[in-house]
Write a structure and sequence with these properties.
CATH class: Alpha Beta
Number of helices: 9
Radius of gyration: 18 Å
Number of strands: 13
């Protein structure tokens, strides 16, 4: 019920509700000293508009997985698709070499501005750009993301990451982003993308409070009316689209978002493409 009411609000309304809910915590943090990592101010809890859990802890978990599963090296040039408030960027500021280039883009203007002010000021090799794309969960308007070309040259990066991005976009945008990410990755490079993936086990063991009941255009949505709400994709469809985009190797590390049996790595499913 709460999630349904939250989705009913416009994107700016959702952010204001979160700010009000966490205002007491944020005022306390401002009074006692804003938390930092590697000399970079972390966003306040009310400023965070994506995901749950601890902002820094979540980023540090993925940093470890970028290295262990994705093969990320300190000298790599990195693309952050949907960089948000820097949840994934900040933990990498003390791992990537100063000569490495980190580029992020996002559809929320104030998030990009915060990353520029907080991260690029301390680490100038980390740069962030705003792209005016439409997503009814996060923006009030914008261009069609299914027609978007990443603003980078061919084979410019060694590693691409997208966490909690493919879980909020439709099939046509997934196809486009798989193609564009492959275009900008150098030979021998890889990508680390998170999804909600449906196979026989995860489909049969969906949790009552976190299930994908609304099929549309080959995907399965958590909400019948919000295209940018949580979206799940069938495994065979994702395999086919990744192969068609030019990714030759696909490794699936299963998540625990459902009550599926067996070992899991993180909450969302992780695909390592190479």
């Amino acid at each position: 019920m709460f999630r349904r009411a939250y989705y009913w609000l416009p994107p700016t309304g959702r952010r204001w509700v979160r700010r009000l809910v966490f205002l007491p915590f944020d005022l306390w943090h401002l009074a006692t000293g804003r938390p930092q990592y590697h000399g970079i101010d972390l966003p306040l809890r009310g400023e965070v508009f994506t995901g749950g859990g601890d902002f820094l802890e979540n980023g540090l978990i993925h940093k470890k997985l970028f290295i262990q599963l994705g093969g990320l090296l300190p000298e790599h040039d990195v693309l952050d698709i949907g960089s948000g408030l820097g949840r994934m960027a900040i933990p990498l500021t003390d791992y990537l070499l100063p000569s490495s280039q980190f580029r992020g883009f996002d559809i929320v203007p104030h998030a990009v501005k915060q990353c520029q002010d907080r991260i690029s000021r301390v680490c100038p090799n980390f740069q962030f750009s705003h792209v005016p794309l439409r997503n009814d969960l996060y923006t009030d308007g914008g261009e069609n993301a299914a027609l978007f070309s990443f603003p980078y040259g061919d084979a410019q990066f060694d590693f691409a990451l997208a966490t909690s991005v493919f879980t909020h976009i439709g099939p046509d945008v997934v196809i486009r982003y798989l193609q564009e990410s492959r275009r900008v990755i150098r030979k021998g490079g890889s990508a680390y993308f998170t999804f909600f993936i449906l196979d026989e086990d995860s489909a049969a063991n969906q949790r009552r409070d976190f299930s994908f009941k609304h099929p549309r255009h080959g995907a399965f949505y958590m909400d019948a009316d919000v295209d940018g709400a949580n979206v799940a994709y069938p495994w065979q469809w994702l395999q086919a689209q990744a192969n068609d985009a030019g990714w030759s190797e696909i490794n699936w590390h299963k998540g625990n978002w459902s009550d599926r049996p067996g070992e899991t790595v993180d909450y969302q499913d992780i695909l390592i493409l190479s």
